[in-house]
Amino acid sequence: MNSKTKPVEAVFHGVFLSCGLLSVAFVVGITAYLVISGMPAIMEVGPVDFLLGQVWNPGQDQYGILPFILTSVYGTLGAMVVGLPLGLLTALFLSKYAGKRSGRLIRSAVELLAGIPSVVYGLVGMIVLVPAIQALFDLSSGATLLAAIVVLTIMILPYIVNVSATALDAVPKEYEEGSLALGATETETYFKVSMHAARSGVAAAVIQGVGRALGEAMAIIMVAGNVANMPEIFGSVRFLTTAIVSEMSYASYGSLQRDALFSIGLVLFVFIILVNIVLNIIARREEK
Questions:
Q1: Percent of the chain clearing pLDDT 70 (strictly above)
Q2: Which residues, listed in sequence order, are joined to residue 62 by a DSSP beta bridge?
Q3: Of the four listed, 55, 97, 168, 252, which is most buried by Cβ atoms within 10 Å?
Q4: Is pTM, for the whole model, over 0.90?
Q5: In sequence order, what are the beta bridge partners of 63?
Q6: How far is the CA of 16 from the CAs of 34, 38, 220, in angstroms?
Q7: Which residues neighbour 33 within 8 Å (Cβ) at sequence distance 6 or greater?
Q8: pLDDT digits over 137-189, tens only?
Q9: What is the pLDDT at residue 102?
Q10: Per-residue pLDDT at 283
């Protein structure tokens, strides 16, 4: 190694190390802030009453977030149930079946979906989707959990498609050629060999999709009705994220209501971390 390159490498090593430590510091700082800001309300209301209470009424000092938790869970699961198969099949088509021109066109469209602001999704959903659901199911209002699931499904598709397609593109051709040589059809090879070999990338796509669905607020607040009800597919609901957005602007500083909103943020943060840990454990077991 040239002696002149050693100082340069040392500088870049220090820069990369500093960036990594800075990222860790951000995570630690956010965690500490949420814990310090969120725990007082949980302790004052009571962990059981706060997490399992079904009534959210700041005027009566009632702060139960079970409807918000269940709504976020149902909305995320609904979006993943619909979006994951659709995204994986699209990624498989782009990676293995599509021609160069059609593949490039579809990839550009998918990337465009990822770049559309959340408020635009919410605006289109409010103008087009909500009235359609209201008319189709003869409801008093189309701002429902169903509308939120549809919007979330569209919003997570780019993440699932792009990450899964990249993972499928990286599968060694020898795997597929060996499968075909043993008599398997192309469809069997792509589903049983290619998809299996790309499972770590698919797991990463699932993690990104879940995180996107759990963390979305602006689009959901425009199509879900923003009412603190227990979740029903045709009922107006409020997510954990929309509960924070809808009340933080007028919650007075130092009030129990404001502290409770920080507590919701803490619960959401812990929930996302737990989901990521579980999915990573499953992915690692699959790899082994």
A1: 97
A2: 57
A3: 168
A4: no
A5: 56
A6: 27, 33, 37
A7: none
A8: 999 989 999 999 999 999 999 989 988 998 888 888 888 888 888 888 888 88
A9: 83
A10: 67
AA letter at 77: L
Average pLDDT, the chain: 88
- Extract the tokens encoding 79: 């979006």
Q: How many Å from the N-terminal Cα to the C-terminal Cα in the chain?
A: 37
Q: What is the mean pLDDT of residues 112-137?
A: 91
| DSSP secondary structure of the chain | --TTHHHHHHHHHHHHHHHHHHHHHHHHHHHHHHHHHHHHHHHHH-HHHHHH---EEGGGTEE--HHHHHHHHHHHHHHHHHHHHHHHHHHHIIIII--HHHHHHHHHHHHHHHHS-HHHHHHHIIIIIHHHHHHHTT-S---SHHHHHHHHHHHHHHHHHHHHHHHHHTS-HHHHHHHHHTT--HHHHIIIIIHHHTHHHHHHHHHHHHHHHHH--HHHHHHSB-------TTS-B--HHHHHHHHHTTSPTTSHHHHHHHHHHHHHHHHHHHHHHHHHHHHHHHH-
Euclidean distance between CA atoms 104 and 62, whole angstroms: 53
Asked if residue 96 has pLDDT above 70, the reply is yes
Q: What whole-number distance in Å separates Cα of residue 88 and Cα of residue 157?
A: 9
Torsion-angle region of 144 (φ positive above 0: left; ψ -120 to 50: alpha; else: beta): beta
Which class for 118: exposed (0-12), middle (13-18), buried (19 or more C-beta within 10 A)? middle
Looking at this protein, which amino acid is placed at residue 181? Answer: A
Neighbours of 82 (CB within 10 A): 17
Tokens linked to 107: 């990839």
Between 239 and 202, the higher pLDDT residue: 239
**CA gap 230, 228 in Å, rounded:** 7
